[in-house]
Design goal:
Helix content of chain B: over 70%
Radius of gyration of chain A: 20 Å
Order of helices and strands of chain B: HHHHHHHHH
Oligomer: heterodimer
Number of helices of chain B: 9
Distance between the termini of chain B: 41 Å
Distance between the termini of chain A: 41 Å
Strand content of chain A: 15-25%
Number of strands of chain B: 0
């Protein structure tokens, strides 16, 4: 499988700091996969997201050793313009990601396309296509500031997707959303994954990652501590490591401690139910 | 003012000639209004200009929001001006003249913001080689006031939930607004980095010409209107020399 992005023994220090935010990280993100990143706050999740989006070192400056490759090119050589046209990036606060220049959702989605200098007809076509793809046509004429947090985050995602990035990196995209908004965002991510989009998502909501991710990375102290399937990673870490376990994993661990669960730990509810004798605890 | 769904701007689309006019033409009009207000020394002439400007509001289908802006913004300023300059400093005649000048400029500015799509204004300026960064600053500044109002309301609600008294006399209300300043300013500053990041991820700094979903269009009437505005401004020179000496 082709590699979309890769860190090669990458260490990064932010300007004015002596402790690296990332230390000797080596990881490859394969095209078309959904990779989740878990870890406690300030563990380096965001810096890894910035690195895989080319925002480190092109927007957040500092010094580094090793390198980050985006579609085979060194992110540092691509510059900011090269990075943002290849990788889309979405972060936690939906309102602060709105351009502040648009009166309607349709204009908001068109904002990035205008910055790319596309012809107005191309902007209109891509905007309308993205509105349809994301099921946002009913919101097209609304003010982005009058929407719920979940809807705003969908608009932000739409505005990034309209630029047709080859990979999407999301840094805690649902941390400021209610359960309905969270579900809307992850439903969209599931559709993007099904369409073959490469996704990297840092998230604390482990149940959602367990449900959607092909692979998880656990970051702690700036180091990549675990890399594997959700079952492998959630089997190796826990709340003491700053990672909330999905409920089925936590239940199965409790049962295992009492000698009532054998075999691999489940990460989804159906796996838990299947593993229980007669489907009951 | 803006409808709840409008969110961030005073502008609401309306099918009128003033709405359809080029934002650049309306900006020239606003500039001319400032020149006229400063150059005309006659209160009756300024009063006629203010009345003519106000008469445009219903024609542009913005009579109600225009009246609200006059009431909430212009009136307090004019009253303050009359009190300070009229009674305390220069006398009633001078206060009347300055008040009418201010009124002409504010009326034109109100009509401008009520009938001009902010993004189209910037697109129009970008088409005249205004740098993208300057255009964004102009637009973000236009949009920032209602955004700060929304945030201030949120902070005020939070303060009220913790027992802050905001109802009552002028002194009580003024005192209630003091605890608002620090969180408002700090939260706005802390968001600067996020906003810059968000803009960059939307290709703001990608080199090359910028385009727009709905590029500004210039009608022949726009060019004619600008010539008329220029002629009216130039006509003030002989009037100033011969009539208003």
């Amino acid at each position: 499988m082709a590699v979309a992005a890769a860190c090669e023994d990458y260490t990064f220090w932010y300007e004015g700091t002596s402790v690296p935010a990332l230390a000797s990280v080596t990881v490859a993100i394969e095209a078309g996969t959904f990779v989740g990143i878990v870890g406690r706050n300030a563990s380096g999740k965001s810096t890894l997201c910035y690195s895989l989006a080319g925002l480190v070192p092109n927007f957040y400056h500092g010094r580094w050793t090793g390198r980050v490759l985006l579609f085979g090119e060194d992110a540092a050589d691509l510059g900011l313009a090269g990075a943002v046209t290849r990788v889309g990036f979405v972060f936690h606060n939906p309102e602060s990601q709105l351009s502040g220049t648009s009166l309607t959702v349709r204009e908001e989605i068109a904002f990035g396309l205008g910055n790319l200098g596309l012809a107005p007809s191309e902007i209109a076509a891509r905007t309308d296509e993205t509105l349809a793809l994301l099921g946002l046509r009913d919101l097209a004429a609304r003010s982005p500031y009058a929407l719920s947090g979940g809807q705003q985050q969908l608009v932000v995602l739409a505005s990034v997707l309209a630029m047709r990035p080859r990979m999407l990196v999301l840094d805690e995209p649902t941390s400021e959303l209610d359960p309905v908004g969270t579900a809307e965002v992850f439903a969209l991510l599931a559709r993007l994954k099904a369409a073959g989009t490469t996704l990297v998502v840092a998230e604390h909501k482990s149940a959602l990652l367990a449900q959607h991710a092909d692979r998880l990375l656990w970051i702690d102290g700036g180091r990549l501590r675990a890399d594997g399937t959700p079952a492998q990673v959630f089997g190796a870490v826990g709340p003491a490591d700053g990672v909330a376990l999905p409920a089925p994993t936590a239940v199965a661990r409790g049962l295992a401690a009492r000698g009532r669960w054998t075999g691999p730990l489940p990460v989804r509810l159906e796996q838990l139910v299947e593993g229980l004798p007669h489907g009951r605890i | 003012m803006a409808s709840p769904d409008q969110g961030l701007a005073a502008y609401v689309p309306r099918p009128t000639w003033l709405d359809a006019a080029s934002p650049f033409t309306k900006l020239i009009w606003l500039g001319c209004a400032v020149v006229w207000a400063v150059a005309i020394p006659s209160p009756p002439a300024l009063a006629a200009l203010a009345a003519a400007t106000a008469a445009l509001a219903p024609l542009a289908q913005v009579g109600r929001p225009f009246a609200v802006m006059l009431w909430k913004i212009a009136l307090p300023l004019l009253v303050a001006l009359a009190l300070v300059q009229g009674f305390l400093v220069y006398g009633f005649g001078y206060a009347l003249l300055q008040g009418l000048r201010l009124l002409v400029v504010m009326e034109t500015a109100f009509l401008f913001v009520l009938t001009t799509h902010p993004a189209k204004l910037v697109a129009s300026l970008l088409a005249r080689r205004l740098p993208n960064t300057v255009g964004y600053v102009v637009l973000a500044t236009l949009q920032s006031v209602p955004m700060l109002q929304r945030r201030a309301a949120t902070i005020l609600d939070a303060q009220r939930a913790r027992g802050l008294e905001v109802e009552g006399g002028l002194v009580t209300r003024l005192r209630a607004y003091l605890p608002l300043i620090a969180p408002l300013v700090l939260s706005a500053l802390s968001e600067v980095d996020e906003r810059a990041l968000a803009l960059e991820t939307r290709a703001f700094s990608v080199p090359g010409p910028k385009t727009h979903l709905d590029p500004p269009r210039e009608a022949p009437s726009d060019r004619a209107a600008r010539w008329l505005l220029a002629a009216a401004t130039l006509a003030l020179v002989p009037l100033r020399v011969l009539v208003w000496r």
